Amino acid sequence: MALNTKLKSFVMMMICLMILKSKDTLQCDAPTHVNRCPRNQQEWKIREKELNCQSLHQSNDSKTELLYHCVLNAEGTELIEVCAPSKKIYGSKCTEFNDGGSIIHESYISCEKFQVPCPTPYNSTKAYEYQECYDIVEKEREKRKNRTENYDYKCSCFEKWTVAAVGGVIANVLIAIIYYQKKQNNKIKNEIKIL
């Protein structure tokens, strides 16, 4: 029985290692953290072409067109590139991507009093026209840099899966060890009773 548990644990570890080893081929539709968003329509068009969001639309069963976006994260602390449906942004707010809901929508950050204020409404694919929204992230980065050195906030989809996979392997190994030790203790107790 202990051999069976060891075999299961070994197979689980091998599967996790294969997943980890295939890092380069793993496709992830998750948003990507970037240091800078396009500053004008020309830069936007270049990034839009490089990301090729329309190809995702063709491989996706959804009839919703996916378009290039470079927007704030939900906390307003990072810039994110993502392929998502466009949305009208109301309330003179910056545009954000909410990772939890996987949607583009209004940020809590108001752009009403910016030098170039956001109109209400505007299309989320025009976020580059309101650069002060992006500048907020740069200010936030400076604050973080002053608080901590060498802090890397970026976490890709692959890293999240890696943590989950490694955690699963560790849990399985611990369960197997505990099971094996209990089995050995029961065996010793039975041998003592026989004597």
Automatic annotation (TrEMBL):
The chain crosses the membrane at residues 161-180. This is Uncharacterized protein. Residues 1-22 form the signal peptide. Keywords: Membrane, Signal, Transmembrane, Transmembrane helix. The lineage of its organism: Eukaryota, Metazoa, Spiralia, Lophotrochozoa, Mollusca.
